[in-house]
Structures are given as structure tokens and as C-alpha cells.
Write a structure and sequence with these properties.
about 325 residues, about 20% strand, about 45% helix, two-stranded antiparallel ribbon, single chain
Length: about 325
């Protein structure tokens, strides 16, 4: 009863929204534009809130608006409350449509690793419909429209739950048919081959391109800049499979084609990179049953993937 009475004494939500927007912009006109109302309406809502709490919230100075001490103290908690409301609304939407799991990943990872495995998840969880969006832009997961994402990066994603799936290495790959036509027994032999370049926009300075790879091995007489360039990792792998040249490929993305014999590793030289693959999601989304099921499944798939690589490495692999 006591808590119910406290809730009934809450200020109007519109007044709180107007205050939060005005406090963020320190400008009633910009707050009004964001809320799609007039500046006068924002001013009136602020006045109503000030009357409600019995204290001024803004100082009006010749240089513009400033927050009072009371407003500065309350603002962080109010912003957190709005974030929690957004999470609750997202959970309500998901609860209405509990079959749907919305997922985002980079195009190359989605095509070469995730999609070939998703059938296993769907077989194990036929009640869940996966909606996958593949794109290079980082989706704002806190907006609530996407449940979970797989991201390739440094692992620093503030405000999100983060689980590392596995790391990445870079290896030279080529089609077996091309290798029969033109042998590649040492890095110096690359002068007889076309170099294929992965130009995907990953800001990882530890990921070698051909000039870096050749310089690290002291190779002379090979122009590391020549050859075609592709803006997706999957495309450079496809070009290598089609015999267009030798590619420096991310091993995770090339592994299925290596196992199928569509690609081979002519030079047993592997370079570890700093970036890795991470599963990320808002904390609230982790409570949804379809998200829990997906997390459990993809973590098991990631462990199986790493176990398979270790088995290859201990045998005749890299």
C-alpha cells in the first residue's frame, strides 16, 4: 500500500520527459524539436514540474540555461529510470511475440559461419523464428529493436552484456587448382601470383595486409600493393576459391571451405590478431527465453568450433 501511494505521487511523465530533454540540451527550443511540441509547451511542463517539487530546476543566465543543484542531483537517476522504462517496453514487445529472435551480425561472418549453423538452432528450437540482419553498421541495441548481436572487435561494448566466442587468425589461402598450375612453396613465390586483398573496414591494426605480412617475413621482390581489393572478407575468400589469386583470409571465415577442399593453405604461417568475435546484448534481453536459448546454443557452437581447430592444429593443420 505504501509503495502504491508513492507511485501515485509521481510527477506527470510528460513533465519529466520535458525536463530530461531540456536538461540534456540546455535549450527549450531544441528540447521542443525533439519532443515534437512547441517551446511554450516545454516551458509550461517545466513550470508544472517546478511547482510540483517546490524548487527551481533551471537558472536562466545571459549565456543560457544552467541546471540548479537539485536538478543536477536528480538528473542521473531520472535518465536511468527512462532507460529502465525503455527496457520494460522492449520486454513487453518481446513477450507479445515470443517466437521472434532478432539478431544482427557482420555480412561475412553471417554468410560464412553463422548461417550454415543456424539450421541446428532452428531444429532444436522450432518455436523460435530467427530474424537475421547482416550489416556493417553497429546497431544501437539499447533501442530495443534487436535482441542480440555478434560483433567482431576489441570486446569493449559499454552498457551491454558481453560474451567472448572465439578469436581470429589470418592465413594465406588459395584454390588447389591454382596451386597445381603455379606452385607456392615459399613467400618469395608470391611474385608469381596475384595477391587478393581483404579491404573490409575493420579498424584492427594487428590484422596484417599483404605489405605488412611480407615485411614481417623479410620478403623482397614482391609488390604487396598489387592485385584486386574487396570490401568484404567473404568476397576475398570467394575470389580465392575461384582461382583468382592468393588471399590473406580470416581463418574462421575460410574454415568451412578449407575443410571441404575448396581452399588450401600453401604456406603454414598463421598470424593471430587482437580482435575476436563477441556475443552482445542488453542485460534485459538476456531474460527472454529465446535469447537464453540462443546464447546457450551459440556458446556450444563456439566451443565446438575451437575444439575442431585445435584438433586440426595438432594434426596436419596449421
Amino acid at each position: 500500500m505504501e509503495r502504491t501511494q508513492e507511485r501515485r505521487r509521481l510527477p506527470p511523465l510528460n513533465a519529466l520527459r520535458a525536463f530530461e530533454a531540456a536538461a540534456r540540451h540546455l535549450n527549450f527550443s531544441r528540447a521542443a524539436d525533439e519532443l515534437a511540441v512547441t517551446p511554450g509547451a516545454v516551458s509550461q511542463q517545466i513550470q508544472n514540474l517546478e511547482d510540483y517539487v517546490g524548487a527551481a530546476l533551471f537558472k536562466r543566465t545571459p549565456k543560457g540555461l544552467l541546471l540548479t543543484d537539485a536538478a543536477q542531483t536528480a538528473l542521473p537517476a531520472l535518465r536511468e529510470a527512462f532507460d529502465r522504462l525503455a527496457e520494460a517496453a522492449s520486454l513487453l514487445t518481446a513477450a507479445v511475440d515470443g517466437r521472434r529472435l532478432t539478431l544482427t551480425a557482420a555480412p561475412s561472418f553471417a554468410a560464412k559461419w553463422l548461417v550454415p549453423r543456424l539450421g541446428h538452432f532452428e531444429q532444436a528450437h522450432p518455436q523460435v523464428d530467427v530474424w537475421l540482419s547482416a550489416g556493417m553498421d553497429l546497431v544501437d541495441l539499447n533501442a530495443g529493436e534487436v535482441d542480440v548481436a555478434v560483433r567482431y572487435g576489441p570486446g569493449r561494448y559499454p552498457g551491454l552484456e558481453v560474451k567472448r566466442l572465439f578469436g581470429e587468425t589470418v592465413i594465406p589461402v588459395v584454390s588447389p587448382d591454382l596451386l597445381k598450375e603455379q606452385p607456392l612453396e615459399s613467400p618469395e613465390d608470391l611474385k608469381h601470383h596475384i595477391l587478393l586483398h581483404d579491404g573490409s573496414p575493420d579498424p584492427d591494426d594487428s590484422c596484417p595486409d599483404w605489405p605488412m605480412w611480407l615485411a614481417a617475413r623479410g620478403v623482397k621482390g614482391v609488390d604487396g600493393m598489387r592485385g584486386p581489393r574487396f570490401n568484404q572478407s567473404s568476397l576475398v575468400i570467394e575470389a580465392a576459391m575461384n582461382g583468382r589469386g592468393v588471399a590473406l583470409a580470416k581463418r574462421t571465415l575460410a574454415q568451412a571451405d578449407l575443410e571441404a577442399g575448396r581452399l588450401v593453405v600453401p604456406l603454414q604461417m598463421e598470424t593471430a590478431v587482437d580482435f575476436a568475435y563477441y556475443l552482445v546484448h542488453p542485460k534485459a534481453k538476456g531474460r527472454l527465453p529465446q535469447v537464453k536459448a540462443f546464447i546457450s546454443w551459440i556458446e556450444a557452437e563456439a566451443r565446438a568450433h575451437e575444439d575442431a581447430l585445435r584438433t586440426l592444429d595438432n594434426g596436419s593443420g596449421i
